[in-house]
Automatic annotation (TrEMBL):
Family: Belongs to the pyridoxal phosphate-binding protein YggS/PROSC family.
UniProt modified residues of type N6-(pyridoxal phosphate)lysine: 25
CDD domains found in the cross-reference section: PLPDE_III_YBL036c_like (cd00635)
Alphabetical UniProt keywords: Pyridoxal phosphate
Domain Alanine racemase N-terminal: 3-215
Signal sequence, start to end: none
The organism's place on the tree of life at top rank: Bacteria
Task of the protein: Pyridoxal 5'-phosphate (PLP)-binding protein, which is involved in PLP homeostasis.
Cited HAMAP family: PLP_homeostasis
Gene3D superfamilies: Alanine racemase
Name under which the protein is recorded: Pyridoxal phosphate homeostasis protein
Pfam families: Ala_racemase_N (PF01168)
Amino acid sequence: MSIEENLNKIKNDISKDITLVAVSKTKPIEDLKIAYNLGQRDFGENKVQEFIDKEESLPKDIRWHFIGNLQTNKVKYLVGKVNLIHSLSSIKLLKKIDEEFAKKDCIANVLIQINIGREETKGGIFEEDIESFINEVEACNNCKVKGIMTIIPKGNDEENRYYFKKMKIIYDNLSKKSYKNITMEILSMGMTHDYKIALEEGSNLIRVGEGIFGKRNIIGGLTNE
Ligand SMILES: *Cc1c(COP(=O)(O)O)cnc(C)c1O
C-alpha cells in the first residue's frame, strides 16, 4: 500500500483528538514530503543527526518528536528545533535538557518514559521511581513535562493491553495531583501493531512508523532499547 493509502486508513481508524506521529526514522526525505503534502505535520525521529538533516530540509511548520535514546552530549542540537522529547529517562538527562534549553532561553516539552515492562534492555524509569523523578522536575526552570510515554514489551494483544492499562492508571493518578512544571496532557503509547489496543486503553498519541511508510529494511528497529 502507498503512504497515502496507509495514512488515510489510519486517520479513518482514529478520532480527531488523537495525535498521530508519523515515525519516519531511516526513511528518505521524499517519503516525509509525501506525508507532509497529505497534511501530516507530526513526525518522529530517533537519531539526532538524522533528525537535524531532515529538520533542515523540510518546512518549518512540522512538529518534530524526538523518540529515541538521547545522549546528554547531543541535547544541544535539539534546542529550538524539537516540539516534544518523548524519551526523558534519567535525572542526568533531565538536568542536561534543562541546562541546554536555558542557554538559549527555550522551554523543553518532554514526556517521562516509563519502563512499564521492567525490561533491562529498554530505557525509561520504573514506576516506583516516578515520585522522586518528579521532585527533580519541579526543581527545573526550562523543562515542562507534558505526560508520559512507553514502549511496551513484545507480546500478544492481551499482554499489550495489560501494560497499556497500567500506563493509564499512572497517567490518571498523576493527572489528579498538582506539581510544578508538570501537566498530564499526553499519553504516548501504541505503534503500528498495537495502536488500536492502545487507543482503547486511553492513549491520545500514537507513534506509527511501518504502518505508514512501510517496512524499514535497515537497522531501524527500536533504537530506544
Ligand atoms: C520505531 C519506533 C516507533 C514506530 O514503530 P513501528 O512499529 O514502525 O510503528 C514508535 N516508537 C518508537 C520509540 C520507535 O523507536
